[in-house]
Write a structure and sequence with these properties.
Chain lengths: 302, 180, 325
């Protein structure tokens, strides 16, 4: 099973941004997706660092992929998206607009924010040139297995969310700006202060969600530690790990050891918790329960 | 945008006290008979209730000293009137006029909920199913009562019309007007 | 302009038609549509009868099959499309590319509209849906301002339909898993958002608490209006600030913007609320029909009178004014 690093969902300053990809060049991962997923206003701050990061990662033998934005509305964003393919690396579409703007016949991959729920959509994307699909995190194992079976026949690789705060929603409205009493156009980049998103709690002070500009995430870190055998049997070819500020390279290593059979699920969960003592884990979606639930045990394979 | 809130008539205190003296057993029997007649004429109501057709609903007119327990019972409904508390799967409470207005399509259930005129507790899905089933059935309790009254039909209908006019409570269904 | 009205039941469909709706949209009573609520929607016979009634009165019927088919069970959604064609629907409203492909291939004569659940938010992707699936109309997501809608219309031949009244999705539609994160049931997979089966209302000392999947998401004090139990309109805290972090419990009312929407090239105005009663449908339709008729006759927009029907009894013009973002 391969390991893919998803695009950094958060707004990091240029130096820590570059450091992440320097570290990943040495990490036991197969594939790195980078670029701006959440907000087009962030990109100018680190855009000039992207070519060097690509070069470093390619030099280290990684597959390198550029993500599209998750929600494309403005003219500027459409132009930006149309230019993605010119960077010379594979594009991961996270909004179907990116597919519309890719030169016809270009091979591409599909990110978790495109709604691939069934065989029909899988067939259609494959017919357009999709070679790999990271499924939406809310899919249960039964759907994952059905789609992985179909994908195998079509020569498409299936990837599943392995670790990280779940991208639950995307909006036209910026919640960081709203919290600070600003509009989106005058956000003053409030999201920059929260490298893992800003925690949202319920009225009873239970940690619940996290806001990240126009994106809403789970407060929990979804983690497939206990489902790796079941996913493997279902025909899943890769797990996606989403960058976080605490010990991400170490986290990649732990997952590699888990996949290689050197660590069991308990050890992986413990290792992940050691990186950040306050972290809460969840894995409910795969077992068709509320996504916030945490099993702490293996799912019976189908 | 200007705000206009709906004013829901409250059942007057005097007559409410009189209703409190109602002998419950015969009243429950009559209401059960009435509800079974409605059931016979509107079988789709129970189809719409689906899995909630065996729930127990407590209807609580907050301006009356009585509560009504409604068991749709899969199409053979039973209604019992009680004083005080009653256990059920779901409770719908509000002024009698609001409850009758909902049945007759004079009010929107969600709007009454937003304005806090209607309180729901317990199995929310069952309440929703009941509300939607009743809304679709286009019930007219006055017409149903008339149909049940045999030779007394005309005086009963006249009495209802008078009651409706003097209280402003929707005691019967009024067809929505044509716009074209 | 065309008024497109919701109907959750045959009675609401009749009420909408009689109140002057040009077009009604509705769904089958299963997981194929995004208002899969208890006691709502149409069985096959009711749908055929509803279409016949509307057609006799000169109104059209659109059938929403706008959830995302479940892997291994696509036949349920395929059958819904076939049954919609057989019932004589004027169009189907679809969101899933796989289902659009199925409909285009197997029912080419059945007109296809792109559901708001596809959240197609720019002219490039709208034109792409048109090219791939011959989509004739798109329901625009509720994230666009009026100038953006005008810009889209300038770049596409596809008709646009926009929401003017009712519940407002704060997130891009069809791209939100908040509900399933807490309840296990989602709009995309199950056709429900913050489902009633997971909602618990509790009244204590005249204060109304709303719990969803065990989390308290709202509390209305005595006299305060109650909201829908949707997560995105809940009350939360973050960075020591307490409040409606995502959206206030308000609903959309763009009645006064109708002239601008017409100028922006919009074909149809959509009213949300298949979960609402026939009384709501009749009132809202009558109101909007009067507004559109006034506009066509060159008269001023009538004053709005719909506040009491709105969630939180308060209206917003949403993203149509850019400051909303």
């Amino acid at each position: 099973m391969e390991l893919t690093v998803g695009p950094n969902q958060f707004f990091w300053k240029p130096d820590p941004w570059s450091d992440l990809y320097d570290e990943l060049a040495q990490a036991p991962v197969d594939r790195v997706v980078l670029g701006e997923l959440v907000c087009s206003k962030r990109l100018p701050f680190y855009q000039d660092r992207i070519p060097a990061a690509i070069e470093t990662l390619l030099g280290a033998g990684k597959q390198v992929v550029l993500t599209s934005l998750a929600l494309i509305t403005l003219k500027r964003e459409r132009k930006m998206t149309a230019e993605l393919a010119e960077m010379g690396v594979e594009v991961e579409i996270n909004d179907l607009t990116a597919l519309a703007l890719l030169p016809e016949g270009t091979a591409f991959s599909v990110g978790p924010l495109v709604n691939v729920y069934n065989e029909g959509t899988l067939d259609w994307l494959a017919s357009k040139g999709a070679t790999r699909i990271c499924l939406p995190p809310e899919l249960p194992l039964a759907s994952v297995a059905t789609l992985a079976g179909r994908a195998r026949d079509l020569g498409v690789m299936i990837e599943v969310w392995g670790h990280g705060r779940l991208p639950l929603a995307i909006s036209g409205r910026c919640y960081h700006a709203r919290l600070h009493g600003r509009t989106k156009d005058n956000c003053q980049f409030a999201c920059e202060d929260d490298p893992d998103g800003l925690q949202v709690s319920t009225m009873e002070d239970q940690p619940f969600l996290a806001i990240n500009g126009v994106q809403t995430l789970s407060e929990t870190y979804a983690n497939a530690a206990y489902q790796i055998e079941a996913l493997d049997q279902a025909g899943v070819s890769a797990l996606r790990l989403s960058p976080q500020s605490a010990g991400f390279a170490r986290l990649c290593q732990l997952f590699r050891q888990r996949i290689d059979g050197e660590l069991d699920a308990d050890a992986l969960a413990t290792g992940v918790r050691d990186l950040d003592k306050d972290v809460r884990l969840s894995d409910g979606f795969l077992s068709a329960r509320p996504g916030v639930n945490w099993s702490g045990k293996a799912l019976a394979p189908l | 945008m200007h705000q206009e809130s709906v004013v829901i008539p409250i059942f007057p205190k005097g007559p409410s006290r009189v209703l409190g003296l109602l002998p419950l057993a015969p009243a429950s029997w009559t209401l059960t008979r009435f509800s079974r007649q409605i059931a016979k004429r509107h079988p789709s109501l129970f189809r719409r209730l689906g899995e909630h057709a065996h729930a127990r609903f407590v209807l609580d007119p907050t301006d009356l000293p009585l509560v009504m327990c409604l068991e749709p019972n899969g199409g053979v409904p039973r209604v019992s009137l009680l004083r005080g508390q009653c256990q059920g799967d779901a409770r719908i409470a509000g002024p009698l006029a609001a409850l009758l207005g909902l049945v007759h399509g004079a009010y929107d259930g969600d709007a009454l909920f937003f304005s806090r005129d209607l309180v729901i507790e317990g199995d929310t899905a069952a309440v929703l199913a009941l509300r939607n089933a009743i809304d679709d059935a286009e019930l007219d309790l006055a017409a149903e009562l008339g149909a049940m009254s045999g030779p007394l039909r005309q005086p009963v209908q006249r009495l209802i019309a008078l009651g409706e006019k003097t209280t402003g409570v929707a005691l019967s269904r009024h067809e929505e007007e044509y716009a074209r | 302009m065309e008024i497109v009205c919701p109907a959750g039941t045959p009675a609401a469909l009749r009420a909408a038609v009689k109140a002057g709706a040009h077009t009604i949209y509705c769904g089958f009573n299963d997981e194929t549509n995004a208002r899969n609520f208890p006691g709502l929607n149409f069985d096959r016979a009711e749908m055929r009868e509803g279409v016949r009634f509307a057609h006799d009165m000169g109104s059209k019927v659109l059938i929403a099959i706008n959830t995302f088919p479940r892997a291994g069970a696509e036949h349920i959604w395929h059958n819904a499309v076939s049954d919609a064609a057989e019932a004589g629907a004027d169009a189907v409203i679809l969101a899933d590319p796989g289902l659009l492909a199925y409909a285009a291939q197997n029912h080419p004569a059945l007109r296809r509209h792109l559901s708001v659940q596809a959240a197609a938010a720019n002219a490039d992707v709208i034109n792409y849906y048109a090219k791939c699936f011959d989509v004739k109309r798109v329901v625009l997501p509720r994230v666009l301002s009026i100038p953006e809608i005008a810009a889209i219309n300038a770049e596409t031949e596809v008709e646009t339909e926009v929401f003017v009244f009712g519940g407002l999705c704060v997130m891009a539609e069809g791209r939100c898993s908040l509900s399933s994160f807490v309840t296990g049931l989602s709009p995309n997979m199950n056709g429900v958002c913050s489902p009633a089966s997971h909602v618990d209302y509790h009244e204590d000392n005249d204060a109304l608490s709303v719990r969803l999947g065990g989390y308290t998401i709202h509390r209305a004090e005595k006299g305060e209006p109650a909201p829908y139990p949707t997560l995105c309109k809940g009350c939360f805290t973050s960075a020591d600030k307490k409040g409606y972090l995502f959206e206030d419990p308000v609903s959309l009312n763009a009645e006064q913007l109708i002239p601008q929407l017409k100028k922006a090239g919009v074909t149809a105005l959509k009213i949300e609320g298949r979960q609402r009663s026939r009384s709501y449908v009749a009132q809202v339709v009558r109101n909007f029909r009067a507004a559109v008729d006034a506009l066509e006759a060159g008269q001023p927009m009538p004053e709005g009178m719909l506040a009491q029907l709105s969630e939180g009894q308060a209206g917003t013009t949403g993203a149509y004014r850019k400051i909303w973002r």
